[in-house]
Design a protein that fits this description.
The chain has about 400 residues and is mostly beta strands. It is built from no helices and 20 strands. It is elongated and about 75 Å long.
Length: about 400
């Protein structure tokens, strides 16, 4: 469940922010949906306040079959605060919201409470793409969730909104998933890319950058990374297709785009896009998410010869690449899922959108995807609760 670190760790880090050197030396992370109890250890040091980050779950892709609006889901909100009233042996109740799994749903709320049920802090989940009910004062489709102060005063941030798309049989286009707020709490989550070009999707957002719109019909952008936005390829033909690159990560490169070639029905090749590189540090005094975005997909159709490569997934904190078919006849290409806190990539009609990372929104699909309780077509990511504290040795 948790990890304990020496109290005098080394270097600092951008992107997640802050020096690794600090007063705390232990962590607990809860990422699966459900309700958990945790008793503070006997060597818990109550002279140092506990820092808690509570993210709500992400919203789902806004398409189910021929229904919906093709919007991406919103990211979960963030509540960030310090608790100074706890002692060794106290029992806490942690709730981690479940990511939305239906196109008109909402991600579950996450919270932290004491044994008497007093809620220290909580955060709502993001709306699914086809849900425009009020979410903490904002009633728009795919809106992100929001952190809520309870018995402690928190920094409260809203998750990024899912990107826009359109439902059209064979030629529809899906928006990218919104990201969760940055772990440092200094800004809201970023919006998934909007899509207004047929047969394709927009990419997922990272904690630092919004998702990218496709350049034109059939083109597929890469997901945004923690150090920059992705790129979109320019065009495709029946002979060749190349996906856009994922945005750079603080600790690694973005993924390369997929390639697809079919020439005169004699030479058919394809290669899937690359996933974003980089890694994450969830330390007792700092958080550093350094992933690159996933590359975009590619698809071609030359008479009866078909070739396609799936999109890539985002690294930690980054968004998934977008996916598209070709000409309304080459379907089922997969968009990339977001890394932790990142949004999933959007997809064209009959293609499969990417799911959100923990607290990230799922990408939208232009037509014909089927998110259900058991089939992940652009689900929102589960919420996340992360605790930093001190123990004595």
């Amino acid at each position: 469940m948790g990890r304990r670190f020496p109290g005098s760790g080394g270097g600092g880090g951008g992107g997640g922010g802050g020096s690794a050197i600090g007063p705390r030396n232990a962590t607990e992370m809860f990422v699966a949906d459900g309700t958990f109890t945790w008793t503070l250890p006997s060597n818990f040091d109550d002279t140092v306040s506990m820092v808690v980050r509570c993210w709500g779950a992400g919203g789902c892709n806004g398409t189910s079959g021929a229904g919906g609006n093709a919007y991406g889901g919103g990211g979960g909100g963030l509540a960030l605060g310090e608790i100074s009233t706890l002692s060794a042996g106290d029992t806490l109740t942690i709730v981690v919201g479940q990511g939305a799994r239906v196109y008109d749903g909402i991600g579950g709320s996450s919270s932290l409470a004491d044994a008497a049920g007093n809620v220290f802090m909580s955060s709502t989940g993001g709306n699914s793409g086809f849900n425009s009910t009020a979410n903490m004062g904002s009633a728009v489709a795919g809106e992100g969730g929001l952190g809520i102060s309870g018995t402690v005063t928190c920094t409260n941030r809203r998750g990024g909104r899912g990107g826009q798309g359109a439902m059209v049989a064979t030629s529809g286009y899906g928006g990218g998933g919104g990201s969760a707020p940055h772990p440092d709490g200094f800004m809201d989550g970023k919006r998934g890319g909007d899509c207004a070009s047929a047969y394709t999707g927009a990419s997922g957002a990272s904690i630092n950058f919004p998702g990218l719109n496709p350049y034109t019909t059939y083109s597929t952008p890469g997901g945004s990374g923690t150090a920059g936005m992705g790129t979109s390829d320019l065009s495709k033909s029946t002979y060749y297709g190349y996906g856009g690159s994922g945005g750079a990560g603080i600790l690694g490169a973005g993924g390369h785009g997929a390639c697809s070639n079919s020439y005169s029905n004699a030479a058919v090749t394809s290669d899937n896009a690359g996933d974003g590189k980089g890694h994450a540090i969830w330390g007792p005094n700092n958080i550093l998410l350094g992933g690159g975005g996933g590359g975009g997909s590619a698809a071609t159709l030359q008479t009866s010869e078909k070739a396609a490569g799936n999109a890539g997934c985002g690294g930690p904190g980054a968004g998934g690449g977008a996916a598209g078919g070709y000409g309304g006849t080459l379907f089922y290409v997969n968009a990339g899922s977001g890394g932790i806190l990142g949004g999933g990539g959007g997809a064209g009609a009959e293609c499969i959108p990417g799911g959100g990372g923990n607290a990230g929104g799922g990408g939208g699909s232009g037509y014909g995807s089927y998110p259900t309780a058991t089939v992940n077509h652009g689900w929102g990511g589960n919420g996340l609760v992360f605790i930093q504290y001190k123990v004595t040795f």
